[in-house]
Amino acid sequence: MIGLTLYDVLAIPITASTDDVRKAYKQKALETHPDKLEPTVTEQERRAAEGRFRNVCEAFEVLSDPVKRKAYDARVQLAQRNKQHWDEQHERRVKTREEWARQVEERSEARMKEPYKEEKQRYVEMVEQFYQELRDCHPEWESRRQAALQWKEMADKAKTPRRHTTRI
After folding, report:
1. What does the pLDDT look like over 82-117, one tens digit per residue?
2. Are 63 and 6 in contact (CB under 8 A)?
């Protein structure tokens, strides 16, 4: 269903006759008329009752006139037919908005991570500077490092010379 219709306001079926509409209107008008309220009701309750009564009057005005009723029924049927289409469009818009929000979140996280890249770069530079100072203080470390790199390279190429080891 598409929501509250004029038939729902008067609590009648769509197939109700003009006499049924008139009877339902009289009953609902008596139930919802603002003059039936107690004098102690608040202004907000009085306005709500007036709104309900206006809805009943509008429903009677439309449903009691055959031309207006036919036009109203056509609009309701069109709305019911298009409800599925509208729901599909709504779902598509919701998915599009969720995708957009996800992309915004990803961009935000990427911006948040960029300072960490800079911090990592500073850390790498600081470590490299520390090693350079150590190499300057102890030049033999650099020669040992070069020898280790050569051994590693030869091991990678499977040309590692065998060391002579003695077993006792």
Report:
1. 877 888 888 999 999 999 999 999 988 887 777 777
2. yes
